Amino acid sequence: MLENLIEDRDFVKIMQKNIENLIILLFEKDQNFGILCKIEHVTFEPALPKEISAEFRPMTLFFLAGYTFDTASIEDDKLVFEAGFGADNFGSIVSVPLWSIKQIIVDETPLLINLSNYKNESIKHIKKADDGGVENSMASFLSNPENSKFLKK
């Protein structure tokens, strides 16, 4: 029963939106935070040297503070930030899909725990459904002449 729920695409979609909303709130409040995520879904540009990437565990904690926090943003359903790694502070742009974030942490306390068991094909299907929904909603809105008063001129 629980397995069916945590793998359900609607549940995954809700969790992804909750993650996005909480991160936006933390940005607005200028609050540093950490994310615990599955390293297999994280990308680094440029790629990290093997001696650095070999040190990551399957579940890795990134703490966003200072310069890393200042560079952080949400782009295309990913949390993106710059960070330095290793003794030489090797710089890389880190991209973390929102759905792969398992926890958001402030002051060593989890604010959000993501129990969804996402699958890449589920996420792609969600995005396609969302894109069409917005277009259909806007078309319905514009088809009613009464709604013209809400449009900017």
Largest sheet report: 4 strands, antiparallel
Euclidean distance between termini CA atoms? 51 Å
| Overall geometry | globular
**Low-pLDDT residue spans:** 122-136, 149-153
> Percent of residues in beta strands?
25-35%
Total number of helical segments?
A: 5
Name the quaternary structure. Answer: single chain
Tell how many strands the DSSP assignment holds: 8
What is the element string, with H for helices and E for strands?
A: HHEEHEHEEEEEH
Calculate the mean pLDDT score and round it.
Answer: 84
Give the secondary structure arrangement, pairings included:
Blueprint: H1 2-6, H2 9-28, E1 33-38, E2 43-45, H3 50-53, E3 59-64, H4 66-71, E4 73-75, E5 78-85, E6 90-97, E7 101-106, E8 109-113, H5 120-143
Antiparallel strand pairs: 1-3, 1-7, 2-6, 4-5, 5-6, 7-8
Overview of this protein structure:
This protein has 153 residues and is of the alpha+beta class. The chain is built from 5 helices and 8 strands; from the N terminus they run H-H-E-E-H-E-H-E-E-E-E-E-H. It has helices at residues 2-6, 9-28, 50-53, 66-71, 120-143, and strands at 33-38, 43-45, 59-64, 73-75, 78-85, 90-97, 101-106, 109-113. The protein has a 4-stranded antiparallel beta sheet. A 4-stranded antiparallel beta sheet has the order 2-6-5-4. The protein is globular, with a radius of gyration of 19 Å. The relative contact order is 0.18.
Keywords:
single chain; alpha+beta; four-stranded antiparallel sheet; 5 helices; 39% helix; 29% strand; globular
Quick synopsis:
The chain has 153 residues and is an alpha+beta fold. It is 39% helix and 29% strand. The protein has five helices and eight strands; from the N terminus they run ααββαβαβββββα.
